[in-house]
């Protein structure tokens, strides 16, 4: 650490009153640690991604989800990626059930299986999952993309619908077929500025507006209430009804993979959001699902930016995506914090 660097454990976090109020509401989504909860109840999150060329992204996403506090963290990846991802950590449940042109047989190629047929191993898992994170390391293989489209469609039709986070090459699917997620109010998209522009163009949105907050809200409305986090120097966040800005300081190093900390954090927050609306503990006055969707998005953005800030203080120019993973828990404690252990437990489960 350079002589002029701040100590990340003691540095003051400067935030607006509005941001502090938002984080106070995010705090309400965090489940208390109660003895009666069982394994898996507070978050079963699956990352769908990982291919021969991209093994780091799904790992960073799944580990961020785990470090934030989900109970069970899965990776559904292409077979060639599974051994490598397994070797990164024994804490993740890695299943090689994502298909690609290289991993289906010649007979299957000749039969030209549907997306639903390819996706069956993943579809069979949907009842056991709280959230899907789709896109980290996904790649653009046509067989993989066909399978993932079927997963998204099935997750929407599931009762109840499975919340999801879409990033990276999953956004390409939305760009080519916006109806795939249009109206899915349990979904968060995380485009960067370039990806946002492509999504806006795909739905015929006028991109001449100079107000990024209004643009974010307009695109969300066009997509029927899908929540959007437009990443950039600040993050603009909207679910079509309300719009907020995440202005927390991040690090100055732009290494690849930092966005995967965001997707994983969002996965856990969405899982906690489900537990909140199931009223697994005494939640007091219930917030609407529209409000809690925005809060989960804001919380994920805030945690990721704080991870980046803390990791940059420690590592400066050498910062890598894995450094953010190590900061997830402390960033959560700094910004949001654990709920009171004295909350009245709900007994009639």
From TrEMBL:
Concerning PROSITE patterns, the annotation shows: YJEF_C_2, YJEF_C_3
Keyword Zinc present in the record's keywords: the answer is no
Which SUPFAM superfamilies is this protein grouped with? Answer: Ribokinase-like
Residues the record lists as binding ATP: 231-235, 250-259
Which compartments is it annotated to reside in? Cytoplasm
Quote the InterPro entries the UniProt record gives.
Carbohydrate_kinase_pred_CS (IPR017953), CARKD (IPR000631), Ribokinase-like (IPR029056)
Q: Which UniProt keywords apply?
A: ATP-binding, Cytoplasm, Lyase, NAD, NADP, Nucleotide-binding, Phosphoprotein
What EC class is this? lyase
Instruction: Supply the Pfam families for this chain.
Output: Carb_kinase
Query: Its Gene Ontology molecular function terms?
Result: ATP binding; ATP-dependent NAD(P)H-hydrate dehydratase activity
Cofactors needed by this protein, per the record, are:
Mg(2+)
Q: Where is the YjeF C-terminal domain?
A: 22-335
Keyword ATP-binding in the entry? The reply is yes
Which family would the database say this protein is a member of?
Belongs to the NnrD/CARKD family.
Write the protein's name: ATP-dependent (S)-NAD(P)H-hydrate dehydratase
Q: Which organism is it from?
A: Cladophialophora immunda
